[in-house]
Write a structure and sequence with these properties.
Radius of gyration: 29 Å
Shape: elongated
Mean pLDDT: 82
Strand content: over 45%
Largest sheet: 8 strands, antiparallel, barrel
CATH class of the largest domain: Mainly Beta
Strand order of the largest sheet: 1-4-5-7-8-10-11-12
CATH architecture of the largest domain: Beta Barrel
Number of domains: 2
Order of helices and strands: HHEEEEEEHEEEEEE
CATH topology of the largest domain: Lipocalin
Low-confidence stretches: 6-13, 35-51
Structural class: alpha+beta
Length: 227
């Protein structure tokens, strides 16, 4: 005596329908597992270095941040800061990079003690209230694999404005043995200090400030990161 036939709903189509549905669920789950976690994964397949950049840490002992301003429109007054920290990331193939520098305004060196008191005071750097000056850039422009311009923002006296840096020199060493890759870069910008609220001694002391950064940096042991 044959076993009674199970009722699957539509006559003769219950089992195939259930099996097809189960197969579609398996395929859907497999596709979901293969989706990339980020859009950067797709970029790496097409351009392996598009999402990767070399990361460097600034050498505080060798990095020099200086400034220049004219007095009476004739005489140049120079100063520099004794301490700065930061990092750089560069990806010449992707024509991109970052450049972050934090300057300790309290370490200003500007000649005589009298001039130093003025520069540290409320009319200029106001170091008691604003002990740090920062420069942050999220884009570096390259030409033939060499950085030529840094598109960043300067924060001074708590005010932030775009101040692009023009790169005048760039050089990197070839790593040998245990030595890590090192790079140097010279860049400068000119801005108006009055736009940041720095109006002390104007107009005797000029409004236009030339900011120069000589950066020396060492590659991090893990030299790549995702931008």
């Amino acid at each position: 005596m044959s076993k009674p036939r199970e009722n699957y709903g539509m006559r003769g189509e219950g089992r195939p329908t259930r099996e097809i549905f189960a197969a579609l669920m398996v395929i859907s789950a497999a596709c979901a597992q293969q989706e990339p976690e980020s859009s950067c994964a797709d970029e790496k397949k097409l351009q392996p270095r598009r999402c990767m950049a070399e990361r460097y840490t600034l050498d505080s002992a060798r990095t020099v941040v200086s400034f220049e301003v004219r007095s009476f429109g004739i005489f140049k007054q120079h100063g520099r800061f004794g301490k700065s920290v930061g990092s750089v990331s560069l990806d010449s193939q992707a024509d991109d990079g970052t450049f972050d520098v934090v300057i300790d305004a309290r370490t200003i060196q500007a000649g005589s003690d009298a001039r130093l008191r003025i520069m540290r005071g409320a009319g200029f750097l106001n170091v008691e209230k604003f002990p740090e000056i920062s420069y942050k850039a999220q884009h570096v422009i390259f030409n033939d694999g060499v950085p030529i311009r840094v598109q960043g923002e300067l924060t001074l006296l708590g005010v932030t404005h775009p101040v692009p840096l023009k790169v005048s020199a760039y050089h990197c060493t070839v790593p040998a043995g245990a030595n890590l890759r090192r790079c140097t870069m010279d860049a400068a910008a000119i801005f108006k200090r009055s736009e940041f609220g720095m109006t002390g001694s104007m107009p005797l002391a000029g409004d236009r400030i030339r900011l120069a950064i000589h950066a020396e940096a060492t590659a991090d042991p893990s030299v790549s990161l995702i931008l």
